[in-house]
Amino acid sequence: MPLKLAIVGRPNVGKSRLFNRLAGRTAAIVHDTPGVTRDRQAVDAEYEGIALTLIDTAGFEDAVTGSVAYRMTQQTITAIAEAEALLFLIDARAGITAGDQIIAQTLRKSGKPVILAANKCEGRVETPAEIYGLGLGDPIRISAEHNLGMENLVAALEDLLPKAPADDAQDDEDAEYSEEIEEEPEDEFSEDDEPLEDITVNYLDRPLRLALVGRPNVGKSSLFNHLLGEERSLVGPEAGLTRDSITAPWKAGTRDVLLHDTAGLRKKARVAGETLEEMSVASTLEAIRFADCVIVMIDANAPFEKQDLTIADLIAREGRAIVFAVNKWDLLENKAGGISRMREKLDRLLPQVAGAPLVATSARTGEGLDRLEAAVTEADKAWNTRISTSTLNRFLEGALQRHATPAISGRRVRIRYMTQRKARPPSFTLFGNQLDALPEAYLRYLTNGLRDNFDLKGTPLRFSVRNSKNPYASKK
């Protein structure tokens, strides 16, 4: 089992940089501005052979009740309660402050093992003498930025790991266990045992990766917390509270899910030049690329604004399954026929994801969350669907009979057959003559037919074409 380790300290002492160092990747935004990290974030990692569940935390501050800083501190206190061990980081350059004293007192009261580390010790920086007054023993001198002193930190972590049982006792246990097991004959499998399905759904043997995305202040973090059943992300009336993409395990029915809360996506022009916000946007875009399915959060009081359409188009171009959650439905005054009007608007403005699930929700009251869970399951199923070639070509034959391909320069575009080359998202190849001249409108006709016939709603579809070689073309 991994050691659950929370990294705790004042703002701007280098917690997120150390978190990234131990995680082996950029899992948290790092910036010189104090208070960049606001939510606790957990990742599984292995550092120098040690299995860890790392928890990055916001700065621990004495703040006014109800303020953002106070809510950030409450997130850190929750992380301390969840962790098995604590890594207390101080800034060796700044020395010991009253804030460090308060944190040390809190950590001592927790009764959990504490590793004290002095960060930013590169160069000739000395460890402040008053650090010993924290009552947490000798500090480990490190530089998370320059990867200095990490071998001493590894040794301290190893001391916290559970001791393995003696070899002879383990050997006896293994021998006793092996005697109880009887070897079973291997089953013989033949392709003739079961008929091949015309339509199959191929799930990967891993959790569904699901991201919550949308404009600022549409309720992403509130929905994230409601689904998880705990205050996992910071919420409040202030726009832009979330900066990092936060990940937590969840279940959609029987399916394991990795749920991602993300920072709000503003218009590019408003973000340009704002380094910290640019990093938040980059974190959100990375979450979209990492996801299998994306829930686009829409404000019911201002649905499908230009930025909503831009976000949805981005997700479709990335090839991710998509579900629309119209949030704050409980605050809408005129609800009669509202979803039908929004459905018509969605299909008209976003034909590339026509028919995608559209669910009225309230992250505050929990309204519609059961329907949202079902919609995610269906969109993920469509995204993973693979259709046999014979079934596809029966569909194509009927589509061509109902609506023939157009003629280009007196010669009709000819589609001979089609195959599905991959799923996630479903991608198809058309074979025939003059297919480069096939109008976009005809591809939309085929796309809509595939969606309706094979229930491929909630996922973008991809088409490529392959023209047959002309046997009469002159050889060069």
Description:
The protein is α/β, with parallel strands linked by helices. Strand 4, helix 3 (98-110) and strand 5 (114-119) form a beta-alpha-beta unit. It has a six-stranded mixed sheet with strand order 2-3-1-4-5-6, with helices on both faces. Strands 9-10-8-11-12-13 form a six-stranded mixed sheet, sandwiched between helices. The chain folds into three domains: 3-158, Rossmann fold (3-Layer(aba) Sandwich), CATH 3.40.50; 201-383, Rossmann fold, CATH 3.40.50; 386-467, GMP Synthetase, Chain A, domain 3 (2-Layer Sandwich). It contains 13 helices and 19 strands.
Give the percentage of residues in beta strands: 15-25%
CATH architecture of the largest domain: 3-Layer(aba) Sandwich
Distance between the termini: 66 Å
Superfamily at the CATH H level of the largest domain? P-loop containing nucleotide triphosphate hydrolases
Q: Helix/strand/pairing class, anyone?
A: alpha/beta
Mean pLDDT: 83
For the largest beta sheet, what order do the strands appear in spatially?
2-3-1-4-5-6
Shape: elongated
Report the strand count. Answer: 19
Radius of gyration: 28 Å
In the residues, how many domains can be counted? 3
Low-confidence stretches: 173-196
Q: What helical percentage do the residues reach?
A: 25-40%
- Largest beta sheet, briefly? 6 strands, mixed
CATH topology of the largest domain: Rossmann fold
CATH class of the largest domain: Alpha Beta
* Tally of contiguous helical segments: 13
